[in-house]
Design goal:
Length: 156
């Protein structure tokens, strides 16, 4: 049994573990099931078994008290992963709501541009020119916001 467990750890996925468990619980040639070996397989570190498929694979004649500790540990790990997913989803939702609130606050702020309003970059009056407002409140004309080396004319 230990050799089969080592083999399953090294080379098998869930199907291999279930096949080994099925071989121990429903042996061919009318032999008696080896419940203690099946419990060792269940408790093996690295056993990749889904709880629902595991319960389906267990024979009806197997006493569940033998596998109680392993099954309860598997269910506890499953519940822990589920709760972690719920917490992570709630954190993402809270972060998304905070960002939406910040965006709404930034979009609701107003900018009044008059003939006397000057560009912060070049100190020229904005008048009817194209301008850009940054979240910090800085207002720049289109020419000042153009990247260095950009040869396309800025819209006026």
């Amino acid at each position: 049994v230990e050799g089969a467990i080592c083999y399953c750890r090294a080379r098998c996925g869930q199907e291999g573990w279930l096949a080994l468990l099925d071989l121990l619980l429903r042996p061919p040639d009318g032999r008696d099931p080896d419940y203690s070996a099946a419990c060792r397989v269940l408790a093996a570190e690295g056993a990749a078994l889904a709880p629902l498929q595991l319960l389906e694979a267990l024979s009806d004649s197997m006493p569940l008290y033998l596998a109680h500790s392993t099954l309860s540990r598997m269910m506890g790990a499953l519940l822990h992963r589920r709760r972690q997913g719920q917490v992570l989803r709630a954190l993402h939702r809270a972060q998304n709501l905070a960002l939406r609130a910040e965006l709404a606050q930034l979009q609701s702020s107003r900018v009044v541009v008059s003939d006397e309003t000057l560009c912060r970059g070049c100190q020229r009056p904005l008048g009817s020119k194209v301008f850009y407002r940054y979240p910090s409140g800085v207002v720049l004309c289109g020419r000042c916001t153009r990247p260095e080396g950009d040869s396309t004319p800025a819209p006026e």
